[in-house]
Amino acid sequence: MSIFNEDFLWGGAIAANQYEGGYQEGGKGLGPVDLLPNKDENRVHVMYHPELAMKEKFNYYPSHQAIDGYHYFKEDIAMFAEMGFKCLRMSVSWPRIFPNGDEETPNEAGLKFYDELFDECLKYNIEPVVTLNHFDTPIYLYEKYDGWTNRKLIDFFVRYASVMFNRYKGKVKYWLTFNEINILQVLPFLGGSFDPEKFENPLQTKYQAAHHQLVASALATKLAREIDPANKIGCMLAAGEAYPNTCNPNDIWAAKMLDREGFFFIDVQVRGKYPSYSRRFFEEQQLEIKQEKEDAEILKNTVDFIGFSYYSTKVVSADEQVLSSSEKTDGNIFSSLENPYLPKSEWGWIIDPMGLRITMNTLYDRYQVPLFVVENGLGAVDKPNEAGIIEDDYRINYLSEHIQAVGEAVKDGVEVWGYTPWGCIDIISAGTGQMSKRYGFIYVDLDDNGVGSFKRSKKASFDWYKQVIASNGEKVGRNNDEF
User: Fold this and answer.
1) How confident is the model at residue 480 (pLDDT cuts 50, 70, 90)?
2) Rounded distance, CA 468 to CA 483, Å?
3) What are the phi and psi torsion angles at 262 (to 5°)?
4) Rounded mean pLDDT, 89-97
5) Strand partners, 243
């Protein structure tokens, strides 16, 4: 007997701005990622300085064609079905539905694209798990309204959400409002289409924008249930436990404070109000969040589940000398001190399967609502062997260990709805814009400059994951060893 429920949602995860391409087709508008160059033209620097994205002209924009899912989605979904996917975690491009974001009526051509995409999923009994805003706030809203710093975006988002819930009633029942909502504090251009440096108090601006997103999320949650009581709507956190560098109480407190930066958002979305610790933080930082009198009541519309991404844990110190003199390692946006007990990926990300179990227990202990692992995976360079096959045992090992960690969390009593590895088909990297940083079970013939045949082919991990799903997570080893 599998430790996973019979209705456990095995699948994979992609995002519109990294998968679709077709950036000028069907009347689509621009999102922030459409203005980001590739790694060679300093993509990360541009993310942190949006004025460069708006002013500079770069040689290559990876999202413009991505892997051309706009035209290849039927072929891709057929391959997902061959693996046995129960669900596909994906996003809708807001600027494909409302090109500017503030229109009264949606773009019918954009809706027809998703009509076909969802129908293709349902043809194979694949449940769409849909994120409404995955780093895709229309760039026009950046230009005209300063993005989510402006309260008007609440109404624009709710209008968009209403169109989606009504159009796909009975077709889509799993929804996420904002992807990795806590990214807003670190990369506000991606997370909220605004530049905090344009304002007198950047920190105040970030938390004001966060408030607007939290209100919008709560209104969308309320609306989803009104339109279809069968809808399940969740929030989404970029997760990963913060470990103290030592057992010095100051390090332990620093780790707790770092975790709270993300929990702040989920506390509101699950508990329906601002956490008690935020009062002191706002006072000490001299922040005053502008709220309307109805906001407190709106925030009581709480989510059904917590979706989260997990790639690695973080190591934190309260000692400034340690922070300044120690080696750092990369992660999913968040950097960390080195962890001497753990290996790293080719991109320097800490590999910590046990950390996934720890993170899941922390989230479930804190919130007591179902969890959904909607992103987890290993970015690596894949090279075909002499027979042209990619033997990606490193990916199989990584995912096997993390699936076992999810299983251990289930044994611990954590309620988990599903598991969708990130980039189930190779897509462009959000952080670097590279194709060479691959996550998928399916290889896409494209290089970092967007040159290639777009041909899809199976990696060794394809058949492995097929067996994982067929056994409902019982057979997860390289040779289909039982869990």
Assistant:
1) low
2) 10
3) -85, -40
4) 98
5) 315
Distances (CA, A) of 130 to 91, 176, 260, 415: 5, 6, 26, 20
Listed in sequence order, the residues at least 6 apart from 320 whose beta carbon sits closer than 8 Å to its beta carbon are none
> In this structure, which CATH number among 3.20.20.80, 3.40.50.1760, 3.30.40.10, 3.60.15.10 belongs to the domain 9-470?
3.20.20.80
Distance CA 129, CA 89 (A): 4
226 as an active site residue: the answer is no
| 393-409 pLDDT tens trace | 999 999 999 999 999 99
Q: Residue 463 class from Cβ within 10 Å (0-12 exposed, 13-18 middle, 19+ buried)?
A: middle
Q: Which residue has the higher pLDDT, 481 or 91?
A: 91
**What is the residue extent of each domain of the chain?**
9-470
Q: With 0-12 CB in 10 A as exposed, 13-18 as middle and 19+ as buried, what is 354?
A: middle
- First-to-last alpha carbon distance for the chain, in angstroms, is 11
What pLDDT, on a 0 to 100 scale, did the predictor assign at position 327? Answer: 73
Residues 6+ apart with CB under 8 A from 43: 36, 37, 431, 432, 433
Catalytic residue among 20, 127, 241, 375: 375
Cα–chain center distance at 370 = 17
Stretch 104-121: mean pLDDT, rounded?
98
Q: Write down the pLDDT at residue 481.
A: 57
For residue 470, CA distances in Å to 2, 123, 154, 481 come to 11, 19, 42, 13
What is the CB neighbour count within 10 angstroms for residue 45?
Answer: 10
- Report the percent of the chain where pLDDT is more than 90: 92
Which of 364, 332, 379, 426 lies closest to 135 in space, CA to CA? Answer: 332
Q: Are the C-beta atoms of residues 299 and 220 closer than 8 Å to each other? A: no
Annotation marks residue 25 as catalytic: no
Backbone angle region of 87, left / alpha / beta, with phi > 0 → left and psi within -120 to 50 → alpha: beta
Calpha distance 248→319 (Å, rounded)? 10
Q: How far is CA 375 from CA 89, 158, 176, 219, in A?
A: 9, 25, 13, 25
Instruction: Please tell me which residue in 180, 284, 386, 401 is annotated as part of the active site.
Output: 180
Residue 483 has pLDDT above 50, yes or no: no
